[in-house]
Amino acid sequence: MTEARKFKNKYGYFTDDGREYVITEPKTPKPWANIISNGDYSLMISQTGGGYSWRGNAGQNRITRSMQDIIKDPWGKYVYIRDVETKEFWSAAWKPVMADYEYYEVRHGIGYSIFNQKINGIKSKMKVFVVPDAPVEIIEITLANESERKRILDVTTFFEWGLGFAPDEHREFHKIFIDSKYEDDINGLLVDKYLWGFPDEKGRNNNISWEYTAFHAVSERPKSYDGDKESFIGIYGHESCPRAMKEDKLAQRVGRFVDASGSLQVELELKKGESKTVVFTIGAAMKSYEDPKELANKYTNVEAAQKAFEDVHKFWSQFIDTEEIKTPDEAMNIMTNVWLKYQSISCRLWGKSAYYQTSAGYGYRDQLQDSQIFLISKPEYTKKQILMHAEQQFNEGDVLHWWFTIRGGGPRTKCSDDLLWLPFILEAYLKETKDFTILDERVSFLDGGRATVYEHCKRAIERAFHRFSPRGIPLMGDHDWNDGLSAIGNDWKGESFWVGEFLYEILKEFISIARERGDYQFADKCKIVYESLKENLNKYGWDGEWYLQATTDHGLKVGSKENEEGKIFLNPQIWAVISGIADKDRAKKAMEAVTKYLLKDYGTLLLYPAYTKVRNDIGYITRYAPGLRENGGVYTHAATWSVWAYTLIGESELAYEAYKRICPPNRSDNPDGYMCEPYVTPGNTDGPLSPYYGRGGWTWYTGSSQWLHRVATHWILGVRPTYEGLLIDPSIPKEWDGFTYRRQFRGATYLINVNNSAHVNRGIKEIYVDGKLIENNVLPDFKDGKEHRVKVLMG
Amino acid sequence: MTEARKFKNKYGYFTDDGREYVITEPKTPKPWANIISNGDYSLMISQTGGGYSWRGNAGQNRITRSMQDIIKDPWGKYVYIRDVETKEFWSAAWKPVMADYEYYEVRHGIGYSIFNQKINGIKSKMKVFVVPDAPVEIIEITLANESERKRILDVTTFFEWGLGFAPDEHREFHKIFIDSKYEDDINGLLVDKYLWGFPDEKGRNNNISWEYTAFHAVSERPKSYDGDKESFIGIYGHESCPRAMKEDKLAQRVGRFVDASGSLQVELELKKGESKTVVFTIGAAMKSYEDPKELANKYTNVEAAQKAFEDVHKFWSQFIDTEEIKTPDEAMNIMTNVWLKYQSISCRLWGKSAYYQTSAGYGYRDQLQDSQIFLISKPEYTKKQILMHAEQQFNEGDVLHWWFTIRGGGPRTKCSDDLLWLPFILEAYLKETKDFTILDERVSFLDGGRATVYEHCKRAIERAFHRFSPRGIPLMGDHDWNDGLSAIGNDWKGESFWVGEFLYEILKEFISIARERGDYQFADKCKIVYESLKENLNKYGWDGEWYLQATTDHGLKVGSKENEEGKIFLNPQIWAVISGIADKDRAKKAMEAVTKYLLKDYGTLLLYPAYTKVRNDIGYITRYAPGLRENGGVYTHAATWSVWAYTLIGESELAYEAYKRICPPNRSDNPDGYMCEPYVTPGNTDGPLSPYYGRGGWTWYTGSSQWLHRVATHWILGVRPTYEGLLIDPSIPKEWDGFTYRRQFRGATYLINVNNSAHVNRGIKEIYVDGKLIENNVLPDFKDGKEHRVKVLMG
């Protein structure tokens, strides 16, 4: 069988169905990882075999340890294979031994990674995944003897225990509280930690234990084990050539006095042509309700591992397969159908950790936006997320900018936009589901009391109403969406025109919600602000050819033609269009400026030109190198919104350009320049002032993944929910012949077939639903759980 | 010349004068380091070559980066040597290349380390030190061609820039704010960082630049340079075999977009028998008053480096050579004369960083105690330290438990003893100097206002007076000296008997100070507390055979025969003796208990038996493994005080035993068990319940170094200041024939020769000063700046 190899380059390719990315060369330009999660237990693994595991929905709650180093790869959970007779050893992935191989292949899939290789006549297959419904990861290794003689091999694991903390710099202190023991009845190690970096109920530090027991077990009786990094690696040694590989057996040092690591060693005899499978598990059982031994024994055998692997496919299918597009754009298909959902859910919402950032919390704005990814497949998950974020609000309406998802707590800041994302995302939920009961859900405030979700949203908006400048523009506070504008408005004088536009967009919808509930007084109040916002933003925010970003506490303009650097910012232009602040003429002008200054080879820049000088009055955005991240690079999150804005002004071709340039598989032609994985979005791409123009960074853990999915489906394909039903309003490249789109909507399934033989960008001629012509471009809301065929003729 | 090799073992030895420790085997059981500092710029370097540099008196303000890992050694500032013709390469220290050597030798000296080796026919000598009066370190390398042919060699440096932060886990963010450039006129690199982890004047984070410019320069025109870790190491590479060693020249990547590192490469041609010297410098100039180029050019040449190295000896001589003992105990001589002073000053007071801990601050109690090391050589430094700590006090008398020495700030806690160390150390200063003017120095409080040092001490004592239990015992608060008792008394109910003893000791002296100043009211108040303390501590604190440590908030005894674990604590026994709380009988009994339960093979344990179960009501001490650190190990700081207490009850032989067992050179016979450097004190040594009984840890950065010096000189040799003059009261082993002691005292120099041909432990028969018999054992206070000969006859 030869497989189609999509977007193939010298490092790898997508499989035909787009569900696997296959890497054939372990030395990619940066570690190309997979972030695997079941929502409670997660792991990161790169194509080299480097990686680490964590539990409890927070990257900081590490189970195994890593030191993150892009150049040298992280420390990993490593597996050594050794020929017991010849003493030759290599590893089941390229790292750490980095042995010469006959072939090498890594398949990063949805919920698993598989390492296939052949070295020294031994074929090995290492499958790494997380059990869908238990805090257990499985490392299943199959060895096949393809040599001409009987082989005796041993397989040895090694990793360091982290157990409850991620910052590695205090390891010299934390590691001494770890306690490991070998237990015969699980063929493995049980490990506790008597210190956790959280205060106890009285606020005392260093007075609670890590609330889990970790384990590492194997499906065969091990011939030896070890729990000590020093005995395994050897002092001044290196994982590529550890002391343990020079000894017949492992040192079996466990207990409370070692430099805690985990190793199990099993021996396998393989006749010529024979193959055998051994299953290792790593897990962390919460002491209060899980038995680590039970967990270990349940999953540490070949049958259970195989069953669990089948379950992984079923598990992910729920999130992936409720929606499918087929367009002429293979990159769009692969990303929309598979990887953007996976990235958003597995990494951003669940794993919350990647090479570039280890998070312990939910960002108020961040995961709220991300949760839109569930709207089509499982809107109840979006609802859950909305309620969870509503709970992080104070009675005064402001919120925790982020909070720890383990044991709570986070910073109350003066950020000007975070609180407003609650009504914004609520609107998306309502339009998808029409589930207005959410407005009556009662949710607590952080500082006591409870109120309905409606009331929570109202308080957020009212809080924003208290933060206006005398000329009627929202104040910047600590910063707006752009965290790097961190010094503009701390004195509550500087303004954010973008917050004004965002608030305008929210009010537009919230006025009717308030009216529907009979809260006419608030609706009227909103209406007044709504109208004055439009007037004031256009009066004070229009710079002649585009909209300003902000003014500083000292009254200086930011994002103005008067500036030498940071003349034009992206967000105020596209949100003027999205929100409707801009009339047709200004929308056109503003977007022309975006096209002229910001739409570049690798996506739409966040601002232009980048700051080359540090500005204490603007903030840390000016401290980045010019062209890097927010400072004039492509910040993918915002770049997706430019797609949306282009469709709104009818510039479908530009919208598609703005999309294509940030759609990762399209960067496959220059992997050494781009550096990042072609199957997930990067947080940012270097802008023109960078000598590494076009280089991506901060992959996986970025809110851009959900938005890239959304702008493709809702704004390019133009299939989006309204209260009336599912709207069909494509804004596609003329050259497309059409596309199909299968998606769930309020229980029913719509099989939409769009015919663009007319080769237009926009415009619907006819729509047939189940064979019947309908009158407008809104599909009826069947609520019947059935499939409905939709034929759309553009023209 | 053959040198005497003192305390020689398989890893190394002390030179005859004790001023160098020579390591002949790079693979010691743990990295055996040197901490070199001039008070403002510091560096750590191990015998392998691993290490890092920092500035501004705080380990967290790193200039070069390291990841601390005892097993694998830290990342270092590495130097590669390469034969340009054969392409063979090795390193100027063992790490990172770990090449086979003909010989290898590291000399850790006072203010420098020298690496001598011979590899591939090339003798190399690398001298690493810090310029005494500038923020510059010098790496001077001399290569001698001992092969039979002409050799062309290049020498290449490599290290990562840290620039202002130590916790390495956020490097992925911080590194992108570093900016490097190559400058022809310094033959090297200049490096800035546009982000520093301190808030600006408005409390805004991420809004200030690192306040230094770092540089790396070389005395020859380099043939190439690099500023990028990725191009130097190569992705997935390793420092043992970097990509750069496979290329003719370095990649010359600098600027703001790289993974900031520093490398310079010079080429040397060496005829047979020829040798050449090249000088590299690394430094960090504070932008507001130093010019980095000037600094670089001043020191980056062979003559300046040689001059600076001579200055290092002169610099350290001021602190080392004002005092010298000669006893029959070589370990005591070497440690007292050289290394304990060096450790206390170079690491604890100045460098404040080592493998086991990176500090950014001064501990209120810590460096105050440490500063006693200056009393003999430079008491004005002790005074400066006292005034600095007094400034960290609030008007209410309590203090910052520690504070950042860069840009200020630290935690205000409910610790019960920290504030009291001010009057305690003041007393030591007064007795040494009789400089009572310090009491009138006016020093500010943290929360406004100023007062005399006397008043600061008084407020500390008054604050302590407000923290008593109803039965007249001081309360524990967050903890006492023993930080690990962190959960005993947070509700202000649990008591600390040790704090009572400590306060008693302080009051004993302070009552007369108050009287002298005419503050009779306070003197009387102190007197009342003083007397009631003695009564109450003996009434409630005596457990039958020893004194209790504490009671908990729930009223449980800690350190009582009623306890199964933690039956007896060291501090309450020895401070009962030191303070005079215990009468003769109880002093004897309490110390008998110390001898019975605590004085073990490797020193006096902090408590017995160690806690094996976690106790939430006691604190994190119980979370350590049994026998580790405070949990029933030898905590060297307190173990030194047991020497003091034994001398006070006349048990000179036991005092000497307690001393000998913790005096590091005495552990040279079992370096693989002890693991630590024999030339500096460890913070702790594993106790009997540890499987690694006798293993040391936390070397260098420990307050035990000053105290080990003090108990040897003041309490074993018994030469200690009183207001009347220098008291001579030895408490030595009978078998000693005597000892000599040269020391400064109030300007004059005393050459003391003690004759113990009577072979007694204690007792003075006759003392002759400058040939004249004196009447008691207190040497007159000459204040004449001259030398005085003192003959002491024991008996």
TrEMBL record, chains A, B:
Keywords tagged on the record: Glycosyltransferase, Transferase
Membrane-spanning residues: none
Protein transport recorded as keyword: no
InterPro entries for this protein: 6-hairpin_glycosidase_sf, 6hp_glycosidase-like_sf, Gal_mutarotase_sf_dom, GH65_N, GH94_catalytic, GH94_Enzymes, Glyco_hydrolase_94_b-supersand
GO molecular function: carbohydrate binding; glycosyltransferase activity
Domain of life according to the entry: Bacteria
A Pfam family matched in the record: GH94_b-supersand
Residue ranges occupied by any Glycosyl hydrolase 94 supersandwich domain in the UniProt entry: 19-301
SUPFAM superfamilies on file: Galactose mutarotase-like (SSF74650), Six-hairpin glycosidases (SSF48208)
One of the GO biological process terms: carbohydrate metabolic process
Residue span(s) of domain Glycosyl hydrolase 94 catalytic: 315-718
PANTHER family linked to this entry: CELLOBIONIC ACID PHOSPHORYLASE, CELLOBIONIC ACID PHOSPHORYLASE-RELATED
Name of protein: Cyclic beta-1,2-glucan synthase
